[in-house]
Design brief:
657 residues, 44% helix, 3 domains, L-fuculose-1-phosphate Aldolase, elongated, Rossmann fold, alpha/beta, binds zinc ion, 7-stranded mixed sheet
């Protein structure tokens, strides 16, 4: 492992302990072989002044919610050092008491809570403490000969057996360093957990960490390999959607299923003994709250209901029964990782962010397992220890901050005509309600237009069936399925009577508004049938029920998609797919309403443009955001028992009513 220390950069922080702490913490954080997603923690001991100006010894230790990769000074709450050390001398200290006392020792009560490993940092007698969960060293300890290997590779380190993090770990280390002066060691290695290095100066603590990790890497290179098989297999997207549905049903809420089909993920999933080696346990118990203890192993061609997921849930219940004590509540029984034979590794989660974290951990885990196998065998901690951590209140608290789930959390949506108007607003509404949304548009601007959180713009000509199929397949390959489809794309040309309709207006209007909608449905229906509370939404028009002169092609196309939706509702009800139509009117903040079209329509009613804009019974102007909110609501569980409906959003129209 290469040191990233830069004397020149570090010189700027020479007189600022906390700034130096930020600098080397970020060096550690920049390598995900050392720490991943909030893992690992660092501290520095310094002197500061309290509110009254009195000098005070404090520990600045990583606060919860911060990541070493991006940490800044406010990420290190200051706690009173002497009193923190006194906590380690107690016979017992419950988790709630530890959390409360650490918070009580903070100089600034509004700072983030100190790391659960804060006491350990306090008692180690050095200024700078670095702690990582490095793959290479933990892999050496996850071996049948783990203790012997560590003794051989790290004769100058204090190696301690695994113990739960938190107070009891602090006590274990406190007792150990009373017997053995830590100054004589390069570092402290905690079996199945990680490494501490420490020094009076930041550079030595950091360089010692790099040196210890390099030794582990050298051992692996000499006795085994960290190069692993790769593979390249096609993936059946309908099977992926089936797997996603089974996991969502077991979890009780829609989940994304993000497949990693990289060559190394497929290589691992293709190993004949993958079911054996992948289910022995995680690299370190810490990962359990993200990934559960083990992945579900799914056959290359799973049976219709994907019984592997049911089996996983049953095994999870057995694991809970075997290890549970006191009054623990069982957590959900759905897997977070699926090893899909030959196809790769799937991350199941409620958001892209959560899935990305799971994918990263899964990638590191398969590296560690295969590397471990090459140096004599992969042996994780017993299930009992993993369970202790999974159901540890302090770990669960890290996950419990997400709040109430949004109505479309974990759902996957596609919207056509997404570059502007109702389409763009609908993408935003669905994303705000928790869905991941892909908006299609023929206009390449859509990519920049939908650059917000949870949204992706994709360029697609809806009149080209092959492009539509490709777009749908890309969405399913990326997120695992499809639940909500909004058929919105359309063009509008008025002012041509039937008598003088050009062939071009007629053909183009029907091709885009009607035929493309049918093609889009044909491409999406196989996946919607495997969706979670799936819903098709068709954007019709008031024009269907109350046509006006001079827009025959448009009116016919909207009547056509309304009829298409009614047939779809009949055909798809048995599969649980709802199909509903909204009929907006007078939504003027859309691309089809050019100033010219607006003027023509207003003139036809002998009105000014302003009068024309709110000419409905409620006298209410309708915006694309109003239509978007309605569409998102119809796609939600509120409308779970509604299909084949036509819902106007037109401010009330006497010709429709
Ligand atoms: Zn740790």
């Amino acid at each position: 492992m290469k040191s990233l220390w830069d004397d020149e950069a570090a010189a700027a922080f020479a007189n600022d302990d906390l700034a130096m702490r930020v600098y080397t913490s970020r060096l550690l954080g920049s390598s995900d072989d050392l720490v991943m997603h909030g893992g690992g923690n660092t501290s520095v001991k310094a002197t500061t002044r309290d509110f009254f100006g009195n000098e005070l010894e404090v520990l600045y230790v990583k606060g919860s919610g911060w990541d070493l990769k991006t940490i800044e000074k406010p990420g290190f709450p200051a706690i009173k050092l002497k009193e923190t050390c006194m906590l380690a001398e107690l016979e017992t200290l419950s988790d709630p008491d530890m959390t409360r006392q650490l918070r009580a020792l903070m100089l600034d009560p509004s700072a983030p809570s100190p790391s659960v490993e804060a006491i350990l940092h306090a008692i180690l007698p050095a200024k700078f403490i670095d702690h990582t969960h490095t793959d290479a060293i933990v892999t050496l300890s996850n071996n049948p000969r783990g203790e012997a290997i560590l003794a051989e590779v790290f004769p100058d380190c204090l190696v301690l057996p695994y113990i739960m993090p938190g107070f009891i770990l602090s006590r274990q280390v406190n007792e150990a360093i009373k017997r053995n002066d830590p100054g004589q060691y390069r570092g402290i290695i905690l079996m199945h957990h990680g490494v501490f290095t420490y020094s009076e100066d930041a550079k030595t603590a950091y360089e010692n960490m790099i040196e210890l990790v390099t030794r582990a890497e050298d051992y692996i290179a000499a006795h085994g390999t960290s190069e692993h098989p790769t593979a390249d297999h096609p993936v059946d997207l309908l099977d992926l959607a089936r797997i996603r549905r089974a996991v969502s049903n077991t979890r009780g809420s829609a989940q994304l299923a993000m497949l990693d089909k990289s060559p190394d993920a497929q290589g691992f999933a293709s190993l004949p003994n993958v079911a054996d080696i992948a289910t022995r346990g995680p690299i370190t118990p810490d990962h359990v709250i993200r990934t559960k203890r083990i992945p579900a192993i799914i056959d290359t061609k799973p049976a219709a209901g994907v019984p592997e997921i049911e089996q996983f849930a049953a095994d999870y219940r057995a694991y809970f029964e075997a290890n549970s004590h006191a009054e623990l509540q069982i957590l959900d029984q759905a897997p977070r990782v699926g090893i899909w034979r030959s196809a790769g590794s799937i991350a199941f989660g409620s958001s892209v962010k959560e899935c990305n974290i799971i994918t990263d951990i899964a990638r590191h885990t398969r590296w560690a397992i295969q590397t471990g196998e090459s140096i004599g065998g992969w042996e994780a901690l017993p299930a009992k220890d993993i369970f202790e951590l999974e159901y540890w209140v302090l770990e669960q608290a890290k996950l419990g901050k997400s709040g109430t789930p949004k109505p479309h959390q974990g759902k996957i949506a596609m919207v056509t005509g997404a570059n502007s108007g109702i389409g763009k607003s609908t993408c935003e509404a669905l994303a705000a309600d928790g869905a991941v949304v892909v908006g299609l548009d023929v206009n390449p601007d859509v990519v920049a237009q939908l650059d917000g959180s949870g949204m992706t713009g994709m360029v697609c000509d809806l009149t080209d069936s092959a492009s539509v199929t490709t777009a749908v397949e890309q969405v399913v390959a990326r997120f695992g399925g499809l639940d909500i489809v909004v058929c919105n794309a359309g063009i509008f040309k008025s002012g041509e009577t039937i008598e003088d309709h050009t062939e071009q207006t007629w053909d183009q209007t029907l091709a885009i508004n009607l035929t493309a909608t049918q093609r889009f449905l044909t491409a999406t229906i196989p996946y919607l049938k495997l969706g979670i509370n799936p819903s098709i939404l068709v954007v019709g028009s008031r024009n269907f029920a109350a046509p006006g002169p001079g827009a025959a092609a448009y009116s016919v196309s909207k009547a056509g998609i309304t009829q298409l939706a009614r047939v779809a509702a009949l055909e798809l009800a048995a599969d649980g797919v709802r199909v509903n139509v909204v009929h907006p009117d007078a939504v003027f903040d859309t691309a089809i309403w050019t100033q010219e079209a607006l003027a023509k329509s207003a003139a036809r009613y002998n009105m000014t443009i302003e009068e024309y804009k709110s000419k409905n019974l409620l006298g209410r102007e309708i915006r694309s955001t109003d239509v978007a909110r309605l569409l998102s609501t119809i796609a939600s569980d509120t409308f779970l028992a509604t299909t084949g409906a036509q819902i106007p959003i037109d401010g009330g129209n006497d010709r429709v009513i």
